Amino acid sequence: MDSLFTPSSIAVVGASAVSGKIGNTILTNLQSAGYKGELFPVNSRGGTIGGLKVYKSISEIDHPVDLAVIAVPRDAVLCALNDLIKIGVRSVAVLSAGFREVGRDGWLLEKQISELAEKNSIYLLGPNCLGFINTSAGINASFASGTPLTGTTAFFSQSGALCVAVIDWALANGVGFSKFVSLGNKSVINESSMIEYLGNDPETKVILGYVENITDGRNFMAQAVKVSMKKPIIMMKSGTTAAGARAASSHTGAISGSDQACDAAFHQAGIIRVDRLEELFKLANAFSCQELPLGPNLGIITNAGGPGILAADACGESSLRMPSFSLSTIAELQPMLPGYASIYNPVDLLREADAARYCKAIKLIGLDPLINSVLVIVSPSDKMNLTEVAETIAACASEISKPVFCCLMGRKNSEAARSIFSEAGVPVYDFPKQAVRAMDSMYKYAIWKGRASRTFETPDRDYDAAKEIIDSALRSGRSELVEFQARDIVTAYGLPSPDSDLARSGDEAATLAKRLGFPVVLKIASPDIPYKSDVNGVWLNLNTEEEVRNAFWKITAEAQRLKPDAYIAGCLVQQMASKDAREIIIGFRRDDQFGPLLMFGLGGVYVEVLKDISYRLAPLSVEDAAEMVREIRSYMLLKGVRGGEPADFDAITDVLIRMSCLADDFPEIYEAEFNPVLVSSDEALVADAHMTIVKLSSGSKESGLNIDDDLSKEA
Amino acid sequence: MDSLFTPSSIAVVGASAVSGKIGNTILTNLQSAGYKGELFPVNSRGGTIGGLKVYKSISEIDHPVDLAVIAVPRDAVLCALNDLIKIGVRSVAVLSAGFREVGRDGWLLEKQISELAEKNSIYLLGPNCLGFINTSAGINASFASGTPLTGTTAFFSQSGALCVAVIDWALANGVGFSKFVSLGNKSVINESSMIEYLGNDPETKVILGYVENITDGRNFMAQAVKVSMKKPIIMMKSGTTAAGARAASSHTGAISGSDQACDAAFHQAGIIRVDRLEELFKLANAFSCQELPLGPNLGIITNAGGPGILAADACGESSLRMPSFSLSTIAELQPMLPGYASIYNPVDLLREADAARYCKAIKLIGLDPLINSVLVIVSPSDKMNLTEVAETIAACASEISKPVFCCLMGRKNSEAARSIFSEAGVPVYDFPKQAVRAMDSMYKYAIWKGRASRTFETPDRDYDAAKEIIDSALRSGRSELVEFQARDIVTAYGLPSPDSDLARSGDEAATLAKRLGFPVVLKIASPDIPYKSDVNGVWLNLNTEEEVRNAFWKITAEAQRLKPDAYIAGCLVQQMASKDAREIIIGFRRDDQFGPLLMFGLGGVYVEVLKDISYRLAPLSVEDAAEMVREIRSYMLLKGVRGGEPADFDAITDVLIRMSCLADDFPEIYEAEFNPVLVSSDEALVADAHMTIVKLSSGSKESGLNIDDDLSKEA
Q: What is the domain range of residue A661?
């Protein structure tokens, strides 16, 4: 993508001499930002603009063109792109609007353009975007007003309005960017390609992004997980609530995946997710100038009680800890402060604290082996020489190899001090909570980066057997696999179930029950009855042959009465769970953007009422599976409370991994649920299973539905 | 307190001619803020300061003095206060530090001062405070640098450092205040007296406060609940986490109550609680210039998709709703926008929106009967005449009787527009989420204000019987009432328990069991064994006389073996719960600051593992009790899931109200727990009860321990 971001020549198609027109602003921005390469304005009227010769047509340009910025009316874009391809352009930014966002005809046009670009290996930004800015190369190929400063943070955004607001905000706050990219409709270049490119961009230390949907979830995760290991990716995804998703889809026509899937994707890919725009930049500030902390232990230095308490509160809500200082630190703090000053954590240097006192405290606490990062709070008093204090803190911070953050209370007369901190690379915040939240994010990212590498295991399974069951069901036009069909897939995937067999008559059921051992469960077996409880089709705890025989007739009769058209295969006779077994639910649903989303929770009310569920995307590593189990609030119930035996942890994760494998093997399975899985201290038995299957159309992708297919059906 | 806030004469004790000294800053601030009354500087050196005659001693002042500001060294404060009393001063602000916050001797001195002030009915602010500012009267009796503008918001703060930061921030943002008060150590005037005063202050429309602890929780709630009905109180309380509470107590020596108690108090008193300082002012802005919305339905108007989605997301996370507009509104929106613009909620006026389009949309949506409040998002574009748009929005907003908020994306060149909004009383925010959160707070406050008045019922109970049991236990030196003692109190308070009686032998147990009806429960009965499970002292589901006899001997033998010194009274024989009964836990704990804190939750793992508990402070109204039950996450389990019968709601609230009454009747009960209470569809039986009792010292207050007593013990 270097031809896009560092082109040696740029054509501006639709250049204009009329101030206020996009084709004029672009040219002005390119010139005023100091672009050093060749510029070729194109406009059928010819003449000159801003001292540059205007080409009457693209074909007239007799030099190689790396990048073309297109700002012509929508209906002229395709033609322009064709002409640009003929002169060998390598990348284009389409600023013109009126595509996918305005409905079907725009969408069709956009599709033609993106296909043409892709066929000719052209990097295409937009359409319907503001363009981009590469500060270090002096390129402002956007119609935003104003060029931000140079910095080490890259920002990309799907929303043009947010680009404008962010540039405004950055100019007002002196914040700089390495690259600034408006993605627009993302018809070729999207968040995945941006992350891949910025991951290799030496000028970018931190990647920020705002998106409303993710174009190709699987590829996005693959790129992000690689880049996250090198540099932090901080992103905001909107459309997270039902209301927001509705607004998002009516805005860009983009289908938003579920928020659980997006959360799982960000988590698994090490992306730091924020839910406020403000926070995006507060975190960027922290990540871009400080090293990651090596542990959770935060030392707080303050000269006022209130802000110290606020910082401690914020710490208590975070994953950071606030240990006592080591004894030797306390021993050295004691003589430098009055007896009533708190010398524990936070240490209160008192209102009269001067530069020397801050210096001593920072060095002591910064070198304390029990402390991993330091927050210095300054509450300016009239007597304080704020500049001197800021210089001292900055100097001391540079001598310490741990992250040091500053919170400067109050904005008045503090600009000089803030500049001192900024120049020294000490992130400075207005309020303690902002500082602590930034430090917390850095610590969490450090944990993610330092985590053990993921282990992916491919379990033994009989793929062909499962395939045969699914294909045969699809051939007979079924969209549901009920228990007595699904359990063969469960078995093919190496998962144990309670001993069970299909009985076709009451006598057969009684014989089977005797063989399996009492007590047993009887369950209706019918491909036409996916929800057995609808027909009262599950009888538990049957203790005698007589009871079993009786139950068989009652169950099948009731099912026949309630579902007269259903084919009733008989009843499944199954061993009862052992008394100490706990019920868990393991399932997956195919997310439109990210593919199979696995879910885990305790059975019954824990999932249904308390929504105590953990989510991860397939393929599941061994570590992901273990995290899923530990992450639910009710995990203690599996570990065993009040002397109960712990559930078989490995058996649970094994079910998770095998289900993940099943989900990846068969795009035909749209969703599946093992409910309940009965877990005791030494096994996990899949006691019931249910799957929804779909016939794959030849062209459809594994990740499920996609918008193009949908729209083309309408055509 | 008018003598404090609108004094006709002020003495400054410790006035100084030396610039930078507090005694000089105070005088300068008083003069420069334009104080019109008489000023009497006092300093033993005499002379003049700032053109004013300096009195050599307090006794020399030959005019009546309303207020004295004391800025002398700590050890001279008591003497000065004595002298001031002699000349009839009515209120004082003690700026001097060195009291409670520096330890025991400072604390003793502070106690003398506050007692002297209280004896002489003097309103004393501080000590260890910055003073106060009353903008409308032109009084800046503080040593803060700078006087904020006049406004309708009052602010008080326990932390001086936050006062300084807030003044700074307010000056930078053009925010005004009616009163601005630094409470310091709160030895006489505290948050309760401030709320009472500000509740009656016609210049104050919104009350903001920051506190680290609440001095007298019961009085605080009583004042706040009255004032909340008239004007909003928005408060931040720090020290909410364990880490923060530790920092708070080491800072001011203030004991912080539990955060659950504080949350319950704020909720019951209608106080809007925030957890970020920024939010305090963002909310104040909303409350001070807009009416409360009459319902949850928010209409969003935007000219850019991204910010609209962000607003919709924020709405989805709030208690607000985003309904579709009415059909007639949609019909009128349609012709004014291109076909591809979203005309649902949020309505997208598109990038080219001008003042006229905004005006039409605001009027349409503002008059839509389905909509209760309107958020207008403006994302400035180069072509937009922002000033005209702002003026139009402000004018349209004034024609609509519903609250209208604005979100203006980006700060650059927007100052003029922001001023237009501010002057028109339209709250303006930088980001959609901030605006929606403010609107959400207003809606929640409107619900609180409009709620049905609380009904307090005093249940019938046998106070004397309960009193006798408690007194007798205290006389015999016990601090625990175990089940077989506590159940008599339960009965005295009119609460049903399962039929049960004490058996002293196995035969007696068997006879009792026969009378009660099988199955029964046997429980160890010993005043020395508060936790029966420690000795395996509860046997459930005993079905025959033989089993009961056998259980009796095993239980008592095991108890004797494990607790050889315990007095074993025998076993309690109790009816088993009915099969469909659900276990709930109802209890209370006496909070140091707020008195009895009642808790409610489902038994077992719901309380212990999932911490699914609701809290309220006694006395409990009927409505509070109902809210407590509905508020837990697992409430659905009581309502009945999967066809289960609903639990007897009234019976549960009856137990809650009777426990609340018990807590208020007997300050001797430090904590109590009914666990389990067995609830079926027609009753709630207290199956086990446990109470911790304490002997009340003659002087101790109902709300439990207090710091003064503690410290005096050390003396």
A: 453-496+578-715
